[in-house]
């Protein structure tokens, strides 16, 4: 099963920064779980970069995947404002019903100045996708 995600991501930073997901692609079997790490990656030297906010909307095919865990990583866990907090509902029902992981956090101090992890998301494959080659 090949899994592809769609993202809409915003990072407020002094210099250019992007959000990356690692691994970018993975192949799993039905019922197998896998982790995606969502990270902020500075495109300029970390000494000249700061980030004060991050906003993530990661869409997934809810007929093929379900979220089984979302873990805030230490850098963003310390951010002082969470306009869109991690979904803490039972079985991540809001996230799985929408087929979207939504998260936003901001800080007014202790700005990260180097690449950092935002969220670790664990997915479970709940259906099989068949790829055909022509």
Quick one: how many beta strands? 8
Mean pLDDT: 81
Count up the helices: 2
Our estimate of the beta-strand percent is: over 45%
| Secondary structure: helix percent | under 10%
- Radius of gyration from the alpha-carbon trace, in angstroms: 16 Å
Distance between the termini: 18 Å
Biggest sheet details:
4 strands, antiparallel
List the topology elements:
Blueprint (H helix, E strand, L loop, with lengths): L5 E8 L3 E6 L10 E10 L8 E9 L5 E8 L1 H4 L3 E4 L8 H6 L1 E7 L9 E10 L9
Antiparallel strand pairs: 1-4, 2-3, 3-8, 4-7, 5-8, 6-7
Structure, explained:
The chain is mainly beta and 134 residues long. The chain has 2 helices and 8 strands, in the order βββββαβαββ. It has helices spanning 74-77, 93-98; strands spanning 6-13, 17-22, 33-42, 51-59, 65-72, 81-84, 100-106, 116-125. It has a 4-stranded antiparallel β-sheet. It has a 4-stranded antiparallel β-sheet with strand order 2-3-8-5. The radius of gyration is 16 Å and the shape is globular. The mean pLDDT is 81.
């Amino acid at each position: 099963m090949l899994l592809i995600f769609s993202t809409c991501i915003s990072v407020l930073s002094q210099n250019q920064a992007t959000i990356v997901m690692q691994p970018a692609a993975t192949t799993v079997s039905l019922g197998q779980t896998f982790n995606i790490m969502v990270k902020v990656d500075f495109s300029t030297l970390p000494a000249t970069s700061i980030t004060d906010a991050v906003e993530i909307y990661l869409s997934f095919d809810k007929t093929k995947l379900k979220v089984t865990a979302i873990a805030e990583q230490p850098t963003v866990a310390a951010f002082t404002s969470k306009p869109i907090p991690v979904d803490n509902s039972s079985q991540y029902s809001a996230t799985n019903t929408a087929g979207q992981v939504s998260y936003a956090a901001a800080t007014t101090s202790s700005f990260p100045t180097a690449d950092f992890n935002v969220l670790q998301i664990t997915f479970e494959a709940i259906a099989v996708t068949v790829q055909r080659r022509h």
